[in-house]
């Protein structure tokens, strides 16, 4: 379980990236973080990896306040989180296979174990044929899948994908999302930062919307609130909802066909 | 450790000229240090040779009686700083004279045992006792003259001391140069791989996992430089041994025993390892946060 408790993050240049942000993500959940650029989505990932510390507030993973972790405990924390970065962060002079194997190599696994695992993961993300190519020889979608493959090597409990579809054409984007859904179905908590409303609306998952560092919408809380107050939808509301869903699905279908 | 070794090897393979330049520069630096060390060890040995040779000679009068000689010997045994005394009779003096001048029959004909004085050769444990020993026996009954080579030994001692001090300074200076060379090269390596280091850090690599290869690389340069320098210095020494042997004459300095060279190799490898570690740790210092 991930808990952000009243998190505020201000940088030395006085930019406030997050302001009093509070949310809880349960084990196995699939959550979208949406909002315009600079809303604070990437800051959430950086806080999660303890790359930066919050100015105030507490980040807890499995009940543990990660800002209290000692320096030598950070690597283990980071290996628990599969991070897929917006700019992929792949090594140019390493092949796809070597990039994917990077984290496994840190874990002192044998070469045979690493080779088998990398092969399996590359097959899962559909990159088996490209294993010996270098990042410069790959398309945007392939780069993104390599980054996902690398994030999966530690069987992470949490996967955070920062703009995984940002640089991709709609078809590749959908493939990536399907892949993330598959990972989520296997039990991994998946957090996706995106500004693609189309994908978000089509998937009907929890949405945390950020704007200027503040949470302006959290669909889970709204749902819980509705459930608590026993509010029932009117017939008109239901019709409207149904219409919305249909439109989104048509859009998504079109994108897939393209 | 294995991973660090393979990664360090990969880094060196990917930029072979940089690695080669580092090894060559370190080899030259260590080579000069090794040669100077050999000169230092040699000069110590030469000094030791002169110090342990009889340096004070007491010549007796022709009519000196045996008991007078005995008394001088007894007195010397009570004098501090005397490590050894050797009595040379007139006959022994003649045979030494004959041996030294065997190529010159004219000189041999003119000299008989009567002309040569009997003498006592004294070895001192340290050059500072010369004066004391000489004054203890001067003027004793039967003693004709006391001779000692104070100037030669004093000059040699001051030379050896100068070589030792300048050698330590030179080795220190060369060590500093080597550290700076490795520091610069490893620093360049680290900064060229800054992005990779950052990615590894974010993916959960430990400090040692990231910096290990750089430390191994720095130590490798030190060790390889030390090994090649030792080899080169040994070759130079072996090549110049015939010349040095004729130059040094009786001084038993050469050939240098292999054990000595082996100990020198070990010393240099340790020196190279220490220098490599210090330099690469310094280079990695700013990345240890």
TrEMBL record, chain A:
Residues 216-258 are annotated as: Disordered. It is a peripheral membrane protein. GO terms for molecular function: ATP binding; ATP hydrolysis activity; transmembrane transporter activity. Keywords: ATP-binding, Cell cycle, Cell division, Cell membrane, Membrane, Nucleotide-binding. It comes from the Bacteria. GO terms for cellular component: plasma membrane. Its main location: membrane. Residues 2-237 form the ABC transporter domain. GO terms for biological process: cell division. Gene3D superfamilies: P-loop containing nucleotide triphosphate hydrolases. It is found in: Cell membrane. Belongs to the ABC transporter superfamily. Homodimer. Forms a membrane-associated complex with FtsX. Part of the ABC transporter FtsEX involved in cellular division. This is Cell division ATP-binding protein FtsE. It comes from Candidatus Chisholmbacteria bacterium RIFCSPHIGHO2_01_FULL_52_32. The gene is ftsE.
């Amino acid at each position: 379980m991930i808990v952000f408790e009243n998190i505020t993050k201000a940088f030395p240049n006085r930019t406030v990236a997050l302001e009093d942000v509070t949310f809880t993500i349960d084990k196995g959940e699939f959550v979208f973080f949406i909002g315009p650029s600079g809303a604070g989505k990437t800051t959430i990932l950086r806080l999660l990896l303890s790359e930066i510390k919050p100015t105030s507030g507490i980040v807890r993973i499995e009940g543990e306040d990660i800002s209290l972790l000692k320096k030598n405990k950070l690597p283990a924390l980071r290996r628990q989180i599969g991070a897929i970065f917006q700019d992929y962060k792949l090594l140019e002079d390493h092949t796809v296979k070597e990039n994917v194997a990077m984290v496994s190599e840190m874990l002192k696994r044998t070469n045979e174990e690493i080779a088998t695992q990398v092969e399996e993961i590359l097959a899962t993300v559909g990159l088996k044929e490209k294993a010996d190519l270098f990042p410069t020889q790959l398309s945007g979608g392939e780069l993104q899948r390599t980054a996902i493959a690398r994030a999966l090597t530690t069987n992470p409990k949490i996967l955070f994908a920062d703009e995984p579809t940002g640089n991709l054409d709609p078809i590749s984007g959908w493939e990536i999302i399907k892949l993330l859904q598959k990972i989520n179905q296997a039990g991994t908590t998946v957090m996706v930062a995106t500004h693609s409303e189309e994908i978000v609306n089509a998937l009907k998952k929890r949405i945390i919307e950020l704007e200027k560092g503040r949470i302006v919408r959290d669909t889970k809380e709204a749902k819980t609130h509705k459930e608590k107050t026993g509010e029932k939808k009117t017939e008109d509301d239901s019709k409207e909802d149904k219409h919305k869903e249909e439109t989104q699905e048509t859009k998504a279908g079109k994108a897939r066909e393209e | 450790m294995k991973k660090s070794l393979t990664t360090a090897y990969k880094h060196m393979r990917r930029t072979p000229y940089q690695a080669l330049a580092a090894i060559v520069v370190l080899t030259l630096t260590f080579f000069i240090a090794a040669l100077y060390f050999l000169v230092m060890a040699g000069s110590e040995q030469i000094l030791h040779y002169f110090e342990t040779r009889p340096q004070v000679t007491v010549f007796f009068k022709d009519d000196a009686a045996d008991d007078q000689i005995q008394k001088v010997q007894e007195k010397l045994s009570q004098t501090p700083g005397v490590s050894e005394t050797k009595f040379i009779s007139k006959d022994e003096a003649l045979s030494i004279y004959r041996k030294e001048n065997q190529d010159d029959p004219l000189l041999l004909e003119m000299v008989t045992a009567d002309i040569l004085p009997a003498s006592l050769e004294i070895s001192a444990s340290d050059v500072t006792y010369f004066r004391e020993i000489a004054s203890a026996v001067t003027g004793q009954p039967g003693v004709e003259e006391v001779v000692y080579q104070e100037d030669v030994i004093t000059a040699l001692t001051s030379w050896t001391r100068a070589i030792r001090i300048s050698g330590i300074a030179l080795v220190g200076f060369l060590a500093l140069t080597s550290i700076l060379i490795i520091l610069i090269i490893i620093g360049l390596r680290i900064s060229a791989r800054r992005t990779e280091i950052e990615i590894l850090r974010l993916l959960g690599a430990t400090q040692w996992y990231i910096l290990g290869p750089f430390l191994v690389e720095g130590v490798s340069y030190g060790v390889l430089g030390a090994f090649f320098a030792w080899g080169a210095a040994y070759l130079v020494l072996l090549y110049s041994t015939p010349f040095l042997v004729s130059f040094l004459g009786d001084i038993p300095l050469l050939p240098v025993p292999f054990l000595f060279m082996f100990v020198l190799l070990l010393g240099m490898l340790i020196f190279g390892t220490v220098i490599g570690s210090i330099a690469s740790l310094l280079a990695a210092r700013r990345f240890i946060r």
